[in-house]
Amino acid sequence: MTATDAKKSPWTILKANWVWIVLAIVVAVIVLLAIPMIGASEPAYFSRYTSLSGNTHTVSVSSHKDIPCESCHVDPNGPIAYRVAVAADFYLGLVSRRAGTKFVQFPKPTREACRKCHVTDWSTDIKRTSAIPHPAHLRVASETRNCVNCHKWTAHEESAMAKHKKMPFSGVCVAYGCHVGTKKSTECYTCHHVLGETGAKWKNDHPAVVARVGANGCLEMCHEVAQCTQCHITGKRPVFKGRPTQTGLKIIEAQHVKKSWMTQHGTEALKDRSKCLLCHVSDAECQACHARRPAFHGPTDTWIGQHTKPGKDEKRCLECHKKQECEDCHKKFKEMR
Hints:
Helix content: 40-55%
Oligomer: single chain
């Protein structure tokens, strides 16, 4: 800077160099946005967030491991809004510890998002459709439902799908679609009418329910054709010996509609998980939920000192952790016992 320039006011210098100043600001903004966005192009980037670490692990071993999260979880506000949100969370994380993202959202994948890659995954070729005997796969081009309504574990729990491939194809796929996700307690009665104290309400309601969900679901899980025939021909209510009464599930079913069920269901699962899997044909729901760090664990930096009390219930811990992990840690820190 010359002596003449030194005499100039800051405002004069600013006006003379505004182009360079604006350019410098633009470059700085681009760089600041690029740093987190380069990382966010890989799903593993989100493992830094405690609440998402389980999801990033499951997607890392799936067939979708190389697909950016934003390709499936499309931000309704557009790609620019998504990138700004990623950057905001990234820089907020540098100054504030938190369990999850504050600005980035992961909406349910839409049909359009799936069709970007899978638009040709349907065919009238019998060799292809026989492997997936579902009418929806013959009308994907005109189907209006979201693919994830049925493909619930795509990307994050693909290993769970293997168990469903062993299931016989029938109306049960439709009738029992409620077992993943959440339904209102008033909707449980459709299939779990055994919870009713009397059969009076069901006697009037069941024709509409059977027409809606299909008879196959009823016959596969609980009832027999002879029972239907007896009631419709003679009018006499048959003695039902279906699954709920045979296995003692009626008591467990009754607890499902209670508000406290989500916090208490672990107790029943620890008693006999095989009863859960009679209806929940896969443990994918368990895996997806338990992959998230439980709130009662508290901060990670204080959990080691606090886990002794809940750790006395070993079965509860082993729902998520391997016993070898406990033994390895306790061997290292014997003096802390």
